[in-house]
Amino acid sequence: MRRVRVHRDIPVRMPDGVTLLADRYVPAGAERAPVVLIRSPYGRRGLFGLLYGRGFAWHGFQVVMQSCRGGFGSGGDLDPLGHEHDDGLATIAWMREQPWYGLVRHVRPLLPGVHPVGRGPVRRP
Fold first, then answer.
1. pLDDT for 110 beyond 50
2. What pLDDT shows up at residue 104?
3. Which residues pair with 24 in a beta bridge?
4. CA quadruple 16, 61, 10, 40: dihedral, nearest 10
5. How confident is the model at residue 14 (pLDDT cuts 50, 70, 90)?
6. Residue 50: CB partners within 8 Å, gap ≥ 6?
7. pLDDT value at position 107?
8. Which residues does 71 contact at the CB level (< 8 Å), separation at least 6?
9. pTM beyond 0.70, yes or no
10. Which long-range contacts (CB under 8 A, 24 or more apart) does 118-124 make?
11. Which positions ≥6 away from 119 have C-beta within 8 Å?
12. Tell me: the pLDDT tens digits for 66-104?
């Protein structure tokens, strides 16, 4: 099992000015490892942090766990379908600007009764 460093409460500003909070899990010695992005309305810590954050990091991935709008310290109002697509794309754009960025994979725990919405193609500017 690898050692994992956790960076907590990282502010990620959305284009409309709302700030969402994220935690970043990094396997020791893997600063530019591939990144798994997890955006969740259920929080970034506790069971989710252990299963997803540390779980993926133990296997060599960096993990960015971000609280969706209106939940667990993130700004804005909770609206499960209102901003998810744009916030996901803005978060990926933010990640690409970070010196630790590697390839990205996106995972999203589903809201009960909500069909997953694909991210669609992401073009680099």
1. no
2. 65
3. 7, 64
4. 60
5. very high
6. none
7. 56
8. 41, 42, 43, 78
9. yes
10. 119/85, 119/88, 119/89, 119/92, 120/85, 122/89, 122/92, 124/96
11. 85, 88, 89, 92, 106
12. 999 988 889 999 887 788 888 988 998 999 999 999 876
Mean pLDDT of the chain: 82
**How far apart are the C-alpha atoms of 25 and 51, rounded to whole Å?**
12
Q: Please tell me which residue, 32 or 22, carries the higher pLDDT value.
A: 22
Mapping DSSP onto H, E and C, the string for the chain reads CCCEEEEEEEEEECCCCCEEEEEEEEECCCCCCCEEEEEECCCCCHHHHHHHHHHHHHCCCEEEEEECCCCCCCCCCCCCCCCHHHHHHHHHHHHHCCCCCCCEEEECCCCCCCCCCCCCCCCCC
Question: Tokens 């994992």 correspond to what residue?
Answer: 4
